[in-house]
Specification:
By secondary structure, the protein is mostly helical. The protein folds into two domains: 1-39, no CATH class; 40-85. The protein has four helices and no strands.
Length: 85
């Protein structure tokens, strides 16, 4: 567990090295040192990114939830044709 946390910490600290000085000047204060290219063009860029993040997190949550506990207990469910084969 300790090695995992140190790896994550080292990865996050190394992100600063990924942005070049020219790109760093174009980014807002929050993104400096993290990303390349032109910064966000408007506030709508942040809204779109956070909406996408929320959709991905919800999809991941429900995918894991239904993978671990599918909830189908019916004897005539279509999965039984494969499992009983």
């Amino acid at each position: 567990m300790k090695a995992f946390l140190l790896t994550i910490l080292a990865t996050l600290l190394s992100l600063v090295a990924f942005a070049c000085p020219v790109c760093e000047k174009q980014q807002p204060k929050v993104l400096q040192g993290i990303s390349h290219g032109a910064g966000p063009q408007s506030d709508w860029d942040y809204v779109l990114v956070w909406a996408t993040v929320m959709i991905v997190v919800l999809c991941l949550f429900f995918s894991i939830k239904w993978l671990l506990q599918p909830g189908e207990k019916s004897k005539d469910h279509i999965k039984r044709t494969v499992l009983d084969f």
